[in-house]
Design brief:
mainly beta; single chain; 51% strand; Pectate Lyase C-like; 679 residues; 13-stranded parallel β-sheet; 61 strands; disordered N terminus; 4 domains
Amino acid sequence: MKTTLAILCMLVLAVPVAATAIDVPGDYPTIQAAIDAASSGDVINVAAGTYTEQVYITKSLTLKGIVSSSKPVIRAPAAASRSTYNIPESGRTFDPLVFADGGTGVIVVTVENLEIDGNNDGGTKTFCGILFRSTNPGVIRGNDLHSLKGTSQETMGILIYASNTDVAVSCNTIRDFSRNGITANVGATVAIAGNTVTGDGPLPAGYWAQNGIQIGYGARGSITSNTVSGCSYTGGLWGASGLLVYVPDLAEAVLIEGNSLTENQVNIYLAYCSATVDANNVYATATGTGATSFYGILGDPGETEAPDAHPLGLDEYSGGHGSTYNVTCTGNTLESDGSSGGTGIGIYAGMYGTYNIDFTATGNTVRYWQWGLELFEYTPNVLFAEIHYNNIEGNTDYGIYNYLNTVFDARYNWWGDKSGPYHPTQWSFGTQVITNPDGTGDRITDYLLYEPWLTHSWPAGRVNGGGWIAASEDKVTFGFDVQHQTGAVSGHFQLINHADKTKVRSVTITDLEFPMTESGTEARFSGTCSVNGEDGHTFICAVEDHGEPGKGVDHFITVIDNATSYDCLLGGGNIQVEIPVGGSQSVGTARNPDASIWSENSPNPFRTETAIRFNLPETKHTTLTIYDVTGRAVEILVDQELLQGIHTVNWKPDVPAGTYFYCLQAGDFTDMKKTIVLR
């Protein structure tokens, strides 16, 4: 409660004033009256009840609902009685129920544990539940926003604006909006986590195409662990989306991780952006979306039937666009029910302008769509794509449909059967004829390199080894054998430091993963362990397999309790990384082969010259050939018998900029990798 003593203390500059708690309705009958009376840093506690008012905050404070049986409710007064606002970042006139505005400066504001009831009285302006501008840091947490419709169809849940704004938006529920659930635009920085956004879809023509969460127009940040459903539009042209990233800040990728997305027309929509898309769960069907075309992940709409993004703020951005966007999809589960019109991942480079997309998909499960993945580019734009270690299965028409004559690398994937993908046609890549008419897995088109393929769904594999390393003056011996079995990880690990007699022995192995290197030469596993017989410790182990023997080339790293670490090449012994694969040239396990390119060419990308290194454990006739993306051989660097050992070949290309493959053939073994030439 405010006191005379507190006011007097403010006059003594040497004495800091502590934040004061103000109670509503105990101290002031309305929330706005409490805000007007508050000093910077005060906390306003709002008791249960319904407060029919509009709230305007221009100072640093915390507005907090005191939750008993229910949250206190801020209900919209009549539209005609509400104030509207214009901000320099937008040409719109806004009609917010709660507005935190730092003006030309910055304020620190938290709004939490309130129910925001729009009373479905949106008026004619851009109506929203909460608007934050020039707040850093800002927190919008634990609020329930609903009934946000009305005369204006463009109504929102939460809006965040301005380049000096940094806001955490977490654990809110948002429904009954007509346009966007959560939006960050025009330079704002946001962390959007743990929210639940529910759309009204499928909606017909005459309504807005809803977006659950949007980061756009120079904004940046992350979208993690949210639940978004029901954002779908059947009115044509425009597309609704669960998550929409549209022309964000060009300096960094937006993180989209751990979200649950259900029955959105486009569940994750990426346009003009770089994004890291990890560990999301997506489910969408023709019945649930009501759409003739629907997507798990859509990177630029490429076909005429693909829905155009409909972001809030088409008039609010005057910045430029990048020349290349990087889209990385890892560990996502994208599922449908086999109904017509569904695409798991569609990547289309350059629909909206002149730019390229570098796309990587690893460790994803894409199943039961009409098309698993679609790949396309608009001339003169270029799509780079690498697709490895995914489960692509049960897709009714195609596992991957490549619309181009450009070669894409899709090796080391599971296609639903150990016989590999169904590829009844054939095409030539250099001297190789690529076909697999006897495969019974998902069907694929030409211009895809798919051999070898996995003969078991990912993750699958085994890593084992033993030997010793020299850590400083200490000799350390180790041994391990870890594998995936029927979906679970099993095995053992032990380590002995012979100098200080430390003994480490695994108790449980909880995780085994294979970083997505083409030759399958790396593995990481972790778990709990005992140290000198005492349980309750943890370990992480990372290894690299660089051929036989392992001495001096295989790499062993172990960290105990995030503190003690060992990081050395083997002084003796061997490490083996094994991944089950199949194909006409390679059946059994893919581990460091007899002849392998065991490091990327360096530099890569490059302009004038690059060095390609590879290892021959024995003397063999070897060829090293450069191919372009159409499979045409452009240069033969090696065609002769080479002696056992490590070789380095320099390539000084006289070719246009673009993507190229270098193919090593040594005896019966073939390996291929990608390199990029810049000009």
